[in-house]
Design a protein that fits this description.
three-stranded antiparallel beta sheet, 5 helices, 9 strands
Length: 182
């Protein structure tokens, strides 16, 4: 197995951001070890940091992803020295959970800031808004693309997660989130 990430919990939470998360947020995060097939067709090991309440959902989702051999480019937490910032993670086509940051072009904290969101393969599954687009273009025929009626979307929805591909005012095809219950 190829190891993409083997950080400790402490290392995974050493974020490069200028804005630092409060201790109460950091204390809720859990490092989840996952295995997946990458675009090279080989089995890889990576890690995702998520809120402790979402750790089991995350393990189960990535078991499904491995089972159906859906390719994941990499899964390396933002605390890795390879991740300089959100842009570097996206440029590496990295799958990531916890990332203390604002929603693009806003001053509102993302659900990633609470470890309550996961982005998968950002190059194949871009964020698209009328005034902004990240990464590549959305092509359902491209390997590693999340499909509206695919097993991954169905699984996350069954567990109560929302998919950014369903949003009306923008599309965030890489994005799954499970906000805190109000």
């Amino acid at each position: 197995m190829i190891v993409d990430s083997d950080l400790s919990q402490v290392e995974a939470l050493k974020l490069p951001q200028i804005i630092k998360p409060p201790k109460s947020v950091l204390d809720r995060q859990r490092l989840v070890n996952i295995s997946y097939y990458s675009f090279d067709g080989k089995l890889h090991m990576g890690q995702i940091v998520v809120d402790k309440d979402l750790a089991e959902d995350t393990k189960d989702a990535f078991e499904l992803i491995k089972k159906i051999k859906f390719p994941i480019a990499s899964a390396i937490p933002m605390g890795s020295k390879k991740m300089l910032d959100d842009r570097s993670s996206m440029d590496l086509n990295n799958t990531v959970g916890f990332n203390y940051r604002y929603i693009v072009k806003t001053q509102k904290l993302s659900n990633h800031s609470l470890g309550r969101a996961i982005d998968i393969n950002p190059k194949q599954n871009p964020y698209i808004r009328s005034d902004y687009q990240s990464g590549g273009s959305y092509d359902p025929k491209e390997l590693g693309t999340i499909l509206e009626n695919g097993e991954i979307v169905r699984f996350f929805k069954t567990c109560g997660w929302d998919w950014g591909g369903d949003w009306i005012d923008r599309k965030d095809y890489m994005h799954f989130e499970k906000p805190m219950k109000r």
